[in-house]
Amino acid sequence: MDSNSIAAPGGNEPRTGGMACLRAAALEALAAVGWADKLARVRAIGDQAPLDCARHYVAHVALPGRPAVPVLVSPSEVPQRSMATLEGRAALLHALAHIEFNAVNLALDILWRFAGMPDAFYRDWLRVAREEATHFELLNQRLADLGYAYGDFPGHDGLWEMAERTRDDLLARLALVPRTLEARGLDASPLIRNKLAGAGDARSAAIVDIILRDEIGHVAIGNHWYKLLCARQGREPVACYAELASRYNAPRLRGPFNLAARRAAGFDEAELAALQADRG
Ligand SMILES: [Fe+2]
Ligand SMILES: [Fe+2]
């Protein structure tokens, strides 16, 4: 990776007028190990934080920082539990909390890793990082209400693996993280919400409603910057997506699709037609 400056997480460089560059602060938050420390660091990045869009940062610690638990296992090893039991509902809420913890890291990663985008790009992803932090906290508090905590169940690392695969390619990152993995969350949310409501857990269902509302905005941000980069590079968005999904071995998306949420998030009819034509 080429670089013209180096920021070590935990260090104080670069700073402007006593405040860390938003992107350097994002790298420090990404490196933070404890979830409470990570969330506090996200919240501490103010709207007025200075921003150096051109600088290339280098991480000197393993990313992302994360706590010793949950233990990471392969997706097939995450047990499916019945919604009829308290433990089953807690396991589902834990899985959602783990997704949100990863989503905080993914938003922070796009902030520090990719230089050369306009100011608004970084402000958008800071907003996403904050909302993901709120989602995590809502779910973690709900887990606590039920007598559980983040780390009580295993989790899988599928979201971060896609971040690793697309670490050198912003167009692929946008195509395959917000526009694929987060968009899959739009499809899954109504089913999860109904499972929780059907089990009599209206409070957890209400949290999923909040998350779905915000996630439409995250996917919309992904769509906006993906299409802008496609235009900049003279790429046709639908064909480009198919090529990137194949090159980076993206998961094949299966219905039912939440077409209303996807339209609200900025997918156009050509993209939705391609999605439904590809369903296996
Ligand atoms: Fe989220
Ligand atoms: Fe999100």
Automatic annotation (TrEMBL):
<dbReference type="InterPro" id="IPR009078">
    <property type="entry name" value="Ferritin-like_SF"/>
</dbReference>
<protein>
    <submittedName>
        <fullName>Ferritin-like domain-containing protein</fullName>
    </submittedName>
</protein>
<dbReference type="InterPro" id="IPR007402">
    <property type="entry name" value="DUF455"/>
</dbReference>
<dbReference type="Pfam" id="PF04305">
    <property type="entry name" value="DUF455"/>
</dbReference>
